[in-house]
Every structure is written in structure tokens, then in C-alpha cells.
Amino acid sequence: xxxxxxxxxxxxxxxxxxxxxxxxxxxxxxxxxxxxxxxxxxxxxxxxxxxxxxxxxxxxxxxxxxxxxxxxxxxxxxxxxxxxxxxxxxxxxxxxxxxxxxxxxxxxxxxxxxxxxxxxxxxxxxxxxxxxxxxxxxxxxxxxxxxxxxxxxxxxxxxxxxxxxxxxxxxxxxxx
Length: 176
Known about the structure:
- The protein is α/β, with parallel strands linked by helices.
- It has 7 helices and 4 strands.
- The longest helix is centred in the last third of the chain and has 14 residues, at about 130-145.
């Protein structure tokens, strides 16, 4: 269920209980977006709901606890031959992150997924205490060529304050 949520976003079948945005989405009239960055804390899931209410649709959850944080699929042949090595490879080489050096695998993964899902804009989520993602913001802006909205979360349940709502609204209006 977590993998399905991370890959497809919330939908009418979503019944996982950790996201308030489990409702039917009009996929034809919404703007496809990616959310990239540090982990979404429970209170940060409000960002997804607000985005959908305002006409956006998260088609790529590239946060640390989203799709980007899942290990790569297992190779069944290698799993039968050497399960420990295949397990290590899937987790250590299959999960991309800004903290890895060089972090070029992160950008390869992003490029593939942004193009495949026709992403028109990026919501860049970072926790105020996360220097790695803060430093990555400018590189992502320079590299992606997509409009980016930087949302800084303080972790105190104020991510969805009126200022954030207005910023997401303006971002979506710009992409319309």
C-alpha cells in the first residue's frame, strides 16, 4: 500500500489512514507535480491535500519517505543465486538521496521519473533543520528547468498555515 501510494498518489481506493487526502481526484483537469525533498512528517501530509484542493496532483512523491525512498526491484535470478548481495544492492545502490556523494544517481532517477510522469512543476519540501536538502535547492533549480516552489517545514504542524496555502495557490495559478 505504501508503494502504491508513493507511486500513484492518493485516490479513491486509498484507505491507509496516514494521509488526509484520500479522495477521488479529477486527473484530467489537475496540474501534474512532483514533491521532492526531505521526509514528510505526519502534519506535512496536509500539503498534499491542499495541493489537490487547489488543482494540483502529486504524480511523483520523491521525498525520503516517498517513492524515492523505496529500494529498487529485486532481480529474481540474482536473488536465487546470492540473496544477501541482491538485498544489499537493492537497498544500498537502489535508494537515491541527496546525501550520497556523488549524488548524480538522484538526478538520473529524477530525470527519468519527471519526464515519464510529465511533471510541470516541483514542490520542494525541506525541514528547516535539514542542511542537505537546503543546499540541494539551488542545484535542483538550475538543473530541472521546471518551476519550483520551496516549502520549508518547521515540524510543528504549521506547514499548512495560510501563507503556505497562498503560496501553493499562486504556484498552481502560474502553472495554469
